[in-house]
Amino acid sequence: MQTNNAIDDGLIIAGTIYRSRLLVGSGKYTDLAQTREATIASGADIITVAIRRVNIGQDPAAPNLLDAVPPSQFTILPNTAGCYNAKDAVYTLQLARELLNGHKLVKLEVLGDEKTLFPNMPETLKAAEILVADGFDVMVYCSDDPIQAKMLEQIGCVAIMPLASLIGSGMGILNPWNLSLIIEQSKVPVIVDAGVGTASDAAIAMELGCDGVLMNTAIAGARDPIRMAQAMKLGVQAGRLAYLAGRIAKRFAASPSSPMAGRVA
After folding, report:
1. What average pLDDT does the structure give for the chain?
2. How much is the average pLDDT of 207-229?
3. Distances in Å between the alpha carbon of 108 and those of 19, 105, 180, 218?
4. What is the pLDDT of residue 261?
5. Rounded distance, CA 4 to CA 256, Å?
6. Between 203 and 265, whose confidence is greater?
7. Annotated active-site positions, please?
8. 159: part of which helix (H) or strand (E)?
């Protein structure tokens, strides 16, 4: 019997197929050993790295993240966490390209303030234009505004990454309607970024039709990060399978599981 299997349903970003639709971060773990163990448990192919905070070769004397999660095994996704303007974000990713031997796939995020970590969309749009023109494949963290998401796609970003709720909040998806509008209009992958707290949040994002989910705090901040990484892996897979299967319509009347016709008295 043939079945649709989420494991065989690849995520395509900038022409490359990834087996996993779960993307994970590399921060907030107790050490690099735990980072590696959780990343493996998650089944993720892509691991995002904050270039301004994590050593991937900037400091030859310090522990190097790439020794724990080598580019031969994972796709390293440099990001601009900690940048608050387009100039700093562009410079950070140009540095990452040098450190990673011409690596093109990057995650752009330009923050508005330190309290909410909400995206600064004017600066994000400005940085996206510069980076795309410079040959980068840009995955972009953004607000859940369908108009701004469309603008980023028109600039040439290869994935749109709207927040579900504030970074690290664990509040889950607060505005599924906006996410649905973005998914409906987008011709590039839509990946929920920020706010996921547990596996059911990840499953809901995938059931809505998102192409993937990126998370860090939900795993690294859990009481048992390794188990949570496994739970997130299964949550993403379950949500994708449910989306492909197609849920039943919601209705206000009961519908018996067994047919009434031909029943025994």
Report:
1. 91
2. 96
3. 22, 10, 22, 20
4. 62
5. 27
6. 203
7. 107
8. strand 159-162
